[in-house]
Amino acid sequence: MSIDSPNSPTAGDLAGHVALLGLLSDNHSSFLRGPAEAPPIIRHALNNGSSHWTSETGVDLEACGRFIDLGDRPVGEDDGAYLGIQAHVAEVLTRGAKPLLLGGDHAVTYPIMKAIAERHGPVDILHFDAHSDLYDSYEGDRYSHACPFARILEEGLAGRLVQVGIRTTNAKLQAQADRFGVEIHGMRDFDVRGFRPRFDGPIYITFDMDSLDPSFAPGISHYEPGGFSVRDVLDILHRVEAPIVGADVVEFNPRRDVHGMTAAVAAKMVKELAALMLRNADGAAD
Fold it and tell me: Taking Cα atoms as reference points, which of 196, 222, 197, 195 lies closest to residue 209?
């Protein structure tokens, strides 16, 4: 099955839709490159016929007519091109759709949130990750994939930042978390069954593939054992009741995948996130 891909940007023409958009960007990765290659591979996993399009929550993305694929956006190596991601996301928002972004590394979430905040104001963020990504600068790069949430919070682009799955905190990162009032739920004491994400208003969900234990998602750049199972993440997501104004799936590195396992997991996350975005009514102001 192939999702339609209209290209002409008409204001409001996708109202009520969830729009899939790939961001081919990993210039701000540390250690390894490769996540820029992920969006078309995730899309192939979605469309290869190995599974159908109905989510576990019962939403048929093929039949509902409100899930659409807008293709990929190449992102150049310079900072201007990277910050231009904001304009790509703003175009989706102008068309009335909720953006579901495929990274790319986690650096993309900063310009994404600039567009989200411009449209909706500072919404709350539910962040799945092994890393808190709160460094002020990493290896001399303030736009590093290790820094997006420092940029987001210092610019007031989000209200609450709730992080789950974290298992790499150090003194510098803890100081940043204290500075910004970040709510960190680390893996060491995490109660998967008891955790219920509660938010008073609309939220943005950012899902880093390395929040999962690498046994479930080997196609990532930074292996950090001791993470979530796929079932853990799905159970948390299915308890989200807040309206979702946007989401991303980032840090899948196809160069390290094994037999397409991680691509399949990423596709599963896309399907479940899209269904939740359609199910949970959008309470954000236009």
Answer: 222
According to DSSP, the residues that pair with 20 across neighbouring strands are 69, 100
Model confidence over 47-88: pLDDT tens digits? 999 999 999 999 999 999 999 999 999 999 999 999 999 999
Q: Is 239 exposed, middle or buried (0-12, 13-18, 19+ CB in 10 A)?
A: exposed
Sheet with 183-186: list strands edge to edge.
67-74, 18-24, 98-102, 244-250, 203-208, 123-128, 158-166, 183-186
What would you report as the CA-atom Rg of the chain, rounded to the nearest whole angstrom?
A: 17
Q: The tokens of 224 are what? A: 């950090």
Residue with tokens 């853990």: 232
Q: Determine contact, residues 106/129, Cβ cutoff 8 Å.
A: yes
Tell me the C-alpha distance between 89 and 101, whole Å: 9
Average pLDDT over residues 191-217: 96
Q: How far apart are the first and last CA of the chain?
A: 32
Query: Which pLDDT tens digit goes with each residue over 232-282?
Result: 999 999 999 999 999 999 999 999 999 999 999 999 999 999 999 999 964
Residues 6+ apart with CB under 8 A from 277: 18, 98, 100, 244, 246, 247
Task: State pTM to two decimals.
Answer: 0.95
